[in-house]
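Box 3.1 A note on notation
Throughout this textbook, protein chains are presented in two layers. The first layer is the amino acid sequence; the second is a token string describing backbone geometry. Keep the layers aligned when reading.
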Amino acid sequence: MPDSQLLRCGAFARLYSRRQLLILASSTLLTALIVLIALSVGDVPIPLLHTLKLLVLADNSAEHFILHELRLPRVALGLLAGGGLGLAGLILQTLVRNPLASPDTLGVTAGASAGALLWLTFFSLRYGSAGMPYAAMGGAACAVGLIFLLSARRGLTPLRMILTGVGVSALAGAVVTLILVFSPLTTTFSAWVWLSGSVYAASWPKVLHLLLFYLWAIPLLVVLLRYLKALQLEDALATGLGVRVNAIRLLLLLACVVLSGSAVAQVGAMAFVGLVAPHLARLVVAQGIFSQAYVATCSGGSMVVAADLLARTLFRPADLPAGIFVALAGAPLFLWLLIRQRS
């Protein structure tokens, strides 16, 4: 194959076409450009070249402080959270063989929101916010566990999983509404902002906290992604190929719980990222789950960073939740996908 290139790293080897490598490089450069613009634009504009210089050189100027202590944590948090949601969305869509699947439609985001909101409303004043990511992942795990148990009664098929997920999502949404009704008025507004999805008040500890969760979820996914191709076959055929179908599905779902739950705990319910980013990835990469995963991660991160850039600059001095702009772009695409599915 003259158009292919073998990439080898120890025991890991993979064959890529030059077109795929070009797409991966373009995705990286586009994401880097969006990040650079987000770092440069704001109440105190910084020229692009000067931003690059401030990123690598120590300086005592006000611009250096603004860049490293205010904008960089915000951009890094949005990039990580959006990337995690995009990657989780691609895995779920491939796992249940449905392009409308995502952490939102399967109830993972709603479960994480319910857990995080429960902590924020009733426990954060006494125990602090450190337990919020664990509460969010606990909520997401409860949602996934419920889906798994209800779907497995008559065989764990992708169709049953997504139909059960829609029901679990509605149930978790009702729990969120119930918590908001009984929450103190002092926390209702902050809870509403958090539910809209925002990277406001991002900090380096939040970035590191999210990164720590990703550090063990991403290697697990790298190992499991090779089985996704087999899981797209019929279960009996995949089992015949030696794949432990239910065990692999459960591990993939748990990895999605970590990615989605930790991201939602830090930036709130950023709707549509997990749905739209995988479709953008498949538009540019037709085949190759590793390439699609990389582009979906870049796309999800870029979406959140670009949305946050619009949210904090379009209506100054107001700083709107980035989730509003993600939803404004994602909702029309979701409707288009529904119409396309029906046709």
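Residues 52 and 244 are 48 Å apart (CA to CA). The longest helix spans residues 62-95.
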